[in-house]
Amino acid sequence: MKAARVDRYGTPADIRIEEVGTPVPADDQVLVRVRAASVNRADLDGIQPRPQFVRLFVGIRRPRNHKVGLDVAGVVEAVGPAVTRFKPGDRVFADLYAYGGGAFAEFACAKEKAFLPIPDGLSFEDAATLPHAANLAVQGLRRRDGRTPGPGDRVMVSGASGNVGPFAVQIAKHLGAEVTGVARTEKLEFVRSLGADHVIDYTTTDITKAGERYDWIVDTDSHHSMLSMRRVLRPGGVYITLGGTDLRILDSVTVGPIMSLAGSRTYGLMLWWKPFHEPDITTVTRLIAEGKVKPRIDRTYPLEQVVDALKWVDEGHAKGKVLVIP
Question: Measured between alpha carbons, how far is 166 from 191 in angstroms, rounded to an integer?
């Protein structure tokens, strides 16, 4: 089979397509013929490690795991002898983050617990957009104690036009919030089309100095310090970041908790993330079925052009999700 592989840290250009043996599922593994996969920021963070300390876990000088791609949707091709939930022909999807990746390939193989059935009526393409990004969006709009934004709350989604942001904007609107989306100039109309009540162009406006305050902020990729975000958050408000540079993550896990203890506001990195959490995925697929959320697909690339797909996302062009189709 054909599969994307990476042997060294660098840029998307270091990815190559190789002919490798098709996996044979053993024990509780499931072999899936990939029908669609989607690009996530996390795929890029694995190619050019961000934050840098993750090298301690994934390989200091070069990646120990050569597979690429997290989100996958496809059809079960074969199952191991201990598999009980799926059979050949079943439609399934998964976030392979905890299972070694490998979505950018003609076949993907992982333990059966990695997969969930694709609901009837949901296409492979739409299903492939959900496992990583939509899951993050749901959890970014919920505190560890279960609190979520409510009707009338002012919610800001920073990075509203990328992978996670479009889901977060739509889910926040479903919850009844007044939503502000932050994006670059050429993406503002796209963010409005998601249902955002207001938009901010981060290339011309510093959100920490704009004078507006919010009850809830989902920051998909931090670029501001915790202290500066205090100016943007109302008393009792919640600021959740999903990632960022080494400095911003260090800030969020050190300064953020201290600031949270010192007042009524909550700040910090979403450390309670649960990858491909079935109740949250079920929530998203239900909202899609009800017409409350719509996956936004920017463009698709064949597997042979996976480098171009990754570059398109890395360079910040994508409005929504980018798919890779074997």
Answer: 7
Give me the sign of the Cα torsion angle 50, 51, 53, 56. Answer: negative
Q: Give me the phi and psi of 240, to 5 degrees please.
A: -125, 125
Summarised one tens digit per residue, pLDDT across range 133-146 is: 999 999 999 998 99
From CA 319, how far away is CA 163, in angstroms rounded?
8
Q: How many CB atoms lie within 10 A of CB 89?
A: 8
Locate tokens 């598999």: which residue?
Answer: 83
3-class state of residue 124 by DSSP = helix
In angstroms, how far is CA 247 from the centroid of its own chain? 21
Q: Give dist(CA 104, CA 256) in Å, integer.
A: 36
List Cα–Cα distances, 300 to 34, 125, 163, in angstroms. 14, 9, 14
Question: What residue type is assigned to position 264 of the chain?
Answer: S
Q: Percentages helix, strand, coil for the chain, rounded to the nearest 5?
A: 35, 25, 40
E strand or H helix that includes residue 86: none
Percent of the chain with pLDDT over 90: 83
Bridge partner residues of 321 (DSSP): 297
Q: Which residues pair with 186 in a beta bridge?
A: none
What is the end-to-end Cα distance of the chain in Å, rounded? 10
CB 105 within 8 A of CB 326: yes
Side-chain half-sphere exposure of 122, counting CA atoms within 13 A: 29
| Rounded-to-integer distance, Cα 9 and Cα 25, Å | 29
Q: What does 181-192 look like in DSSP terms, one character per residue?
A: EEE-GGGHHHHH
The tokens describing 314, both together, are 């890395």
